[in-house]
């Protein structure tokens, strides 16, 4: 008999449910409440379950080992497309499709309550990499790039689904969970790609089969995700009923308490309410000049990053071709893995920085942009593949640090409910910058510059963002 009033057997192998409840009660009475509540897997908390389910989907959808060697596959002996055709005619289609689809996805994700868009992401991923794996004609790969734009646009649902399914008190934890799963999938797939390539087990073509398989699994898993009953704008929860946490169960006597029956709103009424809150959150964010400043850098910096990320393999191929090392072993996978892991470590470390960014933010952004621009320029003009690998890796690592602080500062100065909206608008700004660079610098209707010249131009754009950062006043 313990102070809790419970008695149970001393046998550790024949615990009854009553014994287990009594032991937990005793541990809590002895000050072990944190251990009992957080680490005993008797009934896993709903928000943890949801986070784990979404993280597995994120890991599987990012497990795409064919990506580090996609350009090698397109321009290699399997398909023999010319670098100019891939650079100027194929890859820009993905950019144009991405921005076009994102506008629509941003509008319907909240209406459809996230899960259908996540399932759509899985299905479009299967279509894209099936076309890459089994396509033969150039038009098949143009279609793959067009569908890739939809695949990339639907990713917004992955990052916003969780906010509609857990309480605000868990936002920070679940955000770190889904970001970690995202980076882990990307890094591990790059390691697998590099290992299989070096061992000669698989080549750039057969790696596409693994990618298609992983995306098939992610789609099945997406279908198993819990449905979302509410959303932030179109399906808002009645505030009088939303105070209960998902970790508590309120027991009431339904005979004594009459539950009000909420009236069902028409779709038009929901649209009016959604518009009111969308307008309110949008104006609250973008009438704040401090948020506007960081959002401008977000769009410019991330737009340049996406452009460099999309064309880095083209630069590798040019460097190897000009140096006569085209047939040597390629370490694209290792570079992606190392730069992603180190970038994640830098992003994590940024969380421990304690600066007054309202004072030092402009200087930090300016110096960061110069450093990123220099690394990107070194990458673009390098005649050594190892120097090119190093320049690109440093570019990715520095960018991850800059964008982490940028998103944190934006998030800190907007309401929690508007995260999805504001991050979506800033992503749209990012794609506008990338599309403009593609139209002017890459496409055959523009300057039609080669991969090296593109890298140099994007590097100069990054350095010139310094003037924007210094001239804007918060």
From TrEMBL:
Highest taxon above the source species: Eukaryota
Keywords linked to the UniProt accession: Membrane, Transmembrane, Transmembrane helix, Transport
Keyword Repressor: no
Subcellular location: Membrane
Entry GO CC: plasma membrane
Membrane-protein topology: Multi-pass membrane protein
Alphabetized Pfam families for the sequence: Folate_carrier (PF01770)
TM ranges: 90-109, 116-134, 146-166, 178-201, 207-226, 289-311, 331-353, 360-380, 386-407, 419-442
Any one GO molecular function term: vitamin transmembrane transporter activity
Keyword Transport (UniProt): yes
Family listed: Belongs to the reduced folate carrier (RFC) transporter (TC 2.A.48) family.
Protein's name in the database: Thiamine transporter 2
Source organism (scientific name): Timema shepardi (Walking stick)
């Amino acid at each position: 008999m313990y102070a809790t009033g419970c008695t149970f057997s001393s046998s550790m192998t024949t615990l009854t449910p009553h014994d287990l409840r009594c032991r937990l009660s005793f541990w809590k009475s002895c000050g072990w409440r944190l251990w009992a509540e957080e680490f005993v897997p008797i009934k896993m908390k709903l928000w943890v379950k949801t986070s784990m389910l979404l993280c597995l989907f994120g890991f599987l959808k990012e497990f795409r080992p064919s990506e580090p060697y996609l350009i090698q596959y397109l321009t290699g002996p399997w398909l023999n497309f010319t670098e100019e055709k891939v650079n100027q005619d194929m890859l820009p289609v993905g950019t144009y499709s991405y921005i076009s689809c994102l506008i629509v996805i941003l509008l319907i994700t909240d209406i459809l309550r996230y899960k259908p868009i996540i399932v759509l992401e899985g299905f479009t991923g299967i279509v894209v990499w099936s076309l890459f794996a089994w396509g033969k004609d150039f038009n098949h790969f143009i279609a793959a790039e067009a569908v890739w734009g939809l695949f990339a646009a639907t990713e917004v649902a992955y990052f916003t689904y969780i906010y509609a399914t857990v309480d605000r008190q868990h936002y920070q934890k679940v955000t770190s969970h889904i970001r970690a799963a995202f980076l882990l999938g990307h890094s591990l797939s790059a390691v697998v790609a590099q290992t299989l390539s070096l061992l000669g087990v698989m080549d750039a073509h057969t790696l596409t089969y693994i990618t298609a398989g992983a995306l098939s699994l992610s789609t099945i898993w997406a279908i198993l995700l819990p449905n979302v009953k509410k959303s932030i704008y179109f399906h808002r929860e009645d505030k009088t009923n939303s105070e209960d946490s998902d970790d508590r169960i309120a027991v009431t006597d339904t005979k004594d308490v009459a539950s009000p029956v909420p009236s069902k709103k028409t779709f038009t009424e929901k649209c009016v309410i959604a518009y009111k809150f969308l307008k309110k959150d949008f104006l609250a964010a973008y009438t704040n000049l401090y948020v506007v400043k960081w959002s401008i850098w977000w769009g410019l910096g991330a737009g340049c990053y996406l452009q460099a990320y999309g064309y880095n393999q083209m630069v590798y191929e040019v460097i190897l071709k000009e140096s006569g090392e085209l047939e040597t072993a390629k370490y694209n996978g290792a570079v992606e893995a190392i730069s992603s892991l180190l970038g994640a470590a830098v992003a994590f470390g940024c969380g421990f920085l304690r600066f007054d960014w309202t004072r030092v933010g402009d200087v930090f952004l300016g110096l960061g942009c110069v450093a990123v621009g220099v690394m990107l320029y070194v990458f673009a003009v390098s005649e050594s593949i190892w120097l090119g690998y190093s320049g690109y890796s440093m570019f990715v690592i520095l960018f991850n640090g800059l964008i982490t602080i940028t998103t944190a500062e934006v998030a800190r100065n907007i309401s929690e409910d508007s995260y999805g909206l504001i991050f979506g608008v800033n992503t749209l700004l990012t794609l506008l910058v990338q599309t403009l660079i593609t139209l002017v610098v890459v496409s055959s209707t523009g300057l039609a510059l080669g991969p090296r010249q593109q890298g140099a131009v994007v590097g100069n754009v990054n350095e010139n963002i310094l003037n924007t950062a210094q001239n804007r006043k918060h």
